[in-house]
Amino acid sequence: MPVLYDRLLKLKEMFNSKFGSTPKFYVRAPGRVNIIGEHIDYCGYSVLPMAVEQDMLIAVEPVKTHTLQLANTNPLYPDFSTSANNIHIDKTKPLWHNYFLCGFKGIQEHFGLSKLTGMNCLVDGNIPPGSGLSSSSALVCCAGLVTLTVLGMSLSKVELAEICAKSERYIGTEGGGMDQSISFLAEEGTAKLIEFSPLRATDVRLPSGAVFVIANSCVEANKAASSHFNVRVMECRLAAKVLAKHKGLQWDKVLRLEEVQTKLGVSLQEMLLVTEDALHAEPYSREEICKYLGISLEELRTQILTPNTQDELTFKLYQRAKHVYSEAARVLQFKQVCEEAPHNAIQLLGELMNQSHRSCRDMYECSCPELDQLVDICRKFGAKGSRLTGAGWGGCTVSLVPADMLSSFLTNVYEAYYRRNSRSPALEKHSLFATKPGGGALVFLEA
């Protein structure tokens, strides 16, 4: 890890000039790319991500005062200071330091601590922000591990992942837990099937004759700053309740689409048929949902909708449920192809990725023109499969490229998307790269 070592040394120097002292330890947490399984973790379904080599690094020095001082090597992110015993997370402005505070507060609340020691922290991230590679969750995870280390306490990786997944919701994003899980549970050289309730990770060996290439659309997407993400979460929740009611289940206790399948004891294919039977393609008004469930508008607003979805007038239930059940099936097919490794494995995996993008674009409506253009360019120049990755509405694509075509692929995609669209040269440098599965979060005592 020579590059990481150089970064640690540089971070140590910057820390010294910033705080006039030496860090006691460093924490690293990686970003991730989701290969397949988009927008289904918060519905209870398995996903298939891998950690990338890009990460968040934090240099840390515990201090005797109760002040938390946060600084960032990126001059765009201003310094922040607060009392360690009075953490306030501002949901209205998802500024960078709030993600650190999420991880800090999550550990504090888990152990029920009121008096916390202060610390000086310098953060250095090389995950492009708003790119769908999970820079915000990596910072939450890094902060959780920093706080745990300062306290001298220990938790399993699974416990840490669950605490950080829960604590990221302090910022107002109703995520599902994939990002935090892979950040802690990742291992070099393998992707992971991440399952929930209970959380567990299984190795998935990717085919040897191909590489995954990440391409940044250069359209920033901030989950916490727009309502798109939380509205989709709510549409899935409402779809689960309407499907449960349709099948005579106790719908008021149901929150996730996976629960409906489990309670009915049927396959994902059968759930797609139930969706066709029970839901209509036209958007549902709040009144129609209330009438079907037998509740008042006030009950819908206060007991089901979240504060950031209460103003929505219509909800697309059929499209969202159809995406979730079909995407959950694609994840399992992808894993099966990797395990069986047939001679045309790369072709089959690529087709599953292409189907995933179509579903994200048409059924979940979480793509954007630039992502669609980039996916088309990647396929044109040799990708067997290409799809948006992360929340969408901007960010990155991930493409499965035969290893012997990598060089020409990178050259051609660079020319066709970045140069012709005259994207910012600063962005271009980090915008297109091949990646292999990296390792999970770590604590270093020495730089």
Description:
The chain is an alpha+beta fold. It has a domain at 2-205 and 438-444: 2-Layer Sandwich (Ribosomal Protein S5, domain 2), CATH 3.30.230. It contains 15 helices and 14 strands. The strands form four sheets. A six-stranded mixed beta sheet has the order 4-3-5-2-1-14, with helices on both faces. The protein has a four-stranded antiparallel beta sheet with strand order 11-12-8-13. β11 (385-389) and β12 (396-402) form a beta hairpin. α8 packs antiparallel against α11 and α13 packs antiparallel against α14 (406-419). Pfam families: GalKase_gal_bdg, GHMP_kinases_C, GHMP_kinases_N. This is N-acetylgalactosamine kinase. Acts on GalNAc. Also acts as a galactokinase when galactose is present at high concentrations.
The number of helical elements comes to: 15
Please give the number of β-strands.
Answer: 14
The CATH architecture category of the domain at 2-205 and 438-444 equals 2-Layer Sandwich
The proportion of residues forming helix, as a percent range, comes to: 40-55%
Spans of at least 5 consecutive residues whose pLDDT stays below 50 are none
Task: Please state the average pLDDT score.
Answer: 92
Strand content: 15-25%
Largest sheet report: 6 strands, mixed
CATH topology of the domain at 2-205 and 438-444: Ribosomal Protein S5, domain 2
The general outline is: globular
What is the CATH C-level name of the domain at 2-205 and 438-444?
Answer: Alpha Beta
